[in-house]
Amino acid sequence: MNSSWTLLCLGLIAFSFVFIQPVPVHNNFDQNDSVSIPTQPMLQTPAQEIGDNRSFWALNLDTMEHYVADAYLLAIGNHCYIYIEDLVISIIGEEEANARAETYRDEFDANIYPRVIDLAGDPDGTLGDIDGDPRIYILIAEHRQSYYRQSNEGAGEYSNMCEMVYICYRTSNPVRTIVHEFHHLIWFNYEFDEIHFVLEGAAEYAKYHSGYLPANNMTDWVQDFLDDIDDSFIYFEVEAQDYGVCYLFAFYLAEQYGVQFLRDMVQHGDDGAVGLETALEAAGYNISFNELYLDWMTSLTIDEQGFADDRYCLQDMDATIQDYTTLESLPYQDDSLSLYCYGSKVYQLTSPPDSFSVEMSQPANGVAGLSVAFRDAQGWHVQQMQKEGLAILDVTGESIDTAHVIVSYLFAETPAADIDFGSGPRETVQVLMHEINETTDTPTPGPSNTDQALLIIAVSIPITATIIVFVLLLLRRKSEI
To answer: Domain boundary residue among 159, 191, 223?
Structure first.
């Protein structure tokens, strides 16, 4: 970067929110994949009939206190029991409660169960069937959030000793939420400590795989991320944009590497970014998590098909980042750009020169990630770089008409498998973009090391030798010209 700019450089979990559709969550019981799960006794569930009453342990996720929810069995399917809490029945009425229960039963049997197990696997997984009944309990309850609790599938003080999910009756689309939580149930029968950007992305993708999304294939929270990308992708804060960005990533993985890749991930032992890398390697792909992140962010920026084997697009979703800065001319300089780890800032150059340079300083605890996508007379091109220290990416094209610059803060090594909740670290970097001009940008050469050495020799020897040295210098200058 230029000297003047260099001198300038030198000189929730805790928060939840209330939506019309509450955010689905699940509990992490800090189990490890390597833990040996004891074989649980198979408890044969007694025959159940419509109208049966049962009390279930439930969890208030605001206070993290257990309470008892009394509910009635209003529908029985081939694969499910639909219980509705008596408090909900009193609110919506018996007729409405019965109608909803039958709808959920029919959807679960006909579509949700076969489509989700096609994506995720057998619900019994590694944990097995705790109650000897293959049906899934679906409790429609009066609480603010929908969730799945793995502790129900083992003996314990607050265990219901059955495979079940909890669905908030006020959610705007209970069927989609059942899909999401049922996917969690299956995943956590195989994997006991997967982290959330993988878990939630796959569960949101299950909605798409089951056919419950609108024609644009977007979940409710995709636009939240596209409108505000100031977020760490790998850290999870249980906010709307977290669910949106995780789904977009899972959607990209399925399109680039196949739905089978997502299926394999369910039963893969490694977690998080490490698990993704090893799973990709096992599937025959040689790509790092950082490279995958930059490719994916580029696809969300330009979403262009027809080049680079469609690496930079979503083929079945029209989703592009709306949170970007437009630059009508260069140079541009920002001495204090704040970035979350695995967060990005996007710039759109509307009238870029045919040769320009992008420079980014190194984040204090990571590496600079750059991706530049531009279109010229030859079509689209993408250049990328990861660099410790100052990252400089020079771009040259033929009649460039548009360019997009993505700057990202990445870790030097693959993010650890235990990274999960929180906002993640945030660092301040410097960004400079300027036109490359051969005349003005090429520094005037000063004396070379050899010239300086000759001058030093000339001072220390007699006048005759000094004249000879100056002649040599003149001849050297002439040959350089």
So the answer is: 191
pLDDT single digits (tens) 327-353: 999 999 999 999 999 999 999 999 999
| Residues spanned by the domain of 471 | 449-480
351 in a structural domain: yes
Say yes or no: 131 and 157 in one domain.
yes
- Clarify whether residues 118 and 176 are in a common domain: yes
Residue showing tokens 């005759």:
464
Which H or E element spans position 225? helix 222-226
**Does 475 lie in the same domain as 354?**
no
Alpha-carbon distance 382 to 464, whole Å? 60
Instruction: Record the pTM.
Output: 0.82
Q: Helices (H), strands (E): how many in the chain? A: 14, 16
- Residue 189's SS3 state is coil
Give 98: exposed, middle or buried? Use CB within 10 Å, 0-12, 13-18, 19+: middle
Question: Is residue 381 one of the residues assigned to a domain?
Answer: yes
pLDDT (tens digit, 9 = 90+) per residue, 196-246? 999 999 999 999 999 999 999 999 999 999 999 999 999 999 899 999 999
Say whether both 335 and 401 belong to one domain: yes
Cis amide bond preceding 331, omega within 30: yes
Specify the residue for token string 């994916």: 296
Contacts of 20 (CB under 8 A, 6+ apart): 170, 172
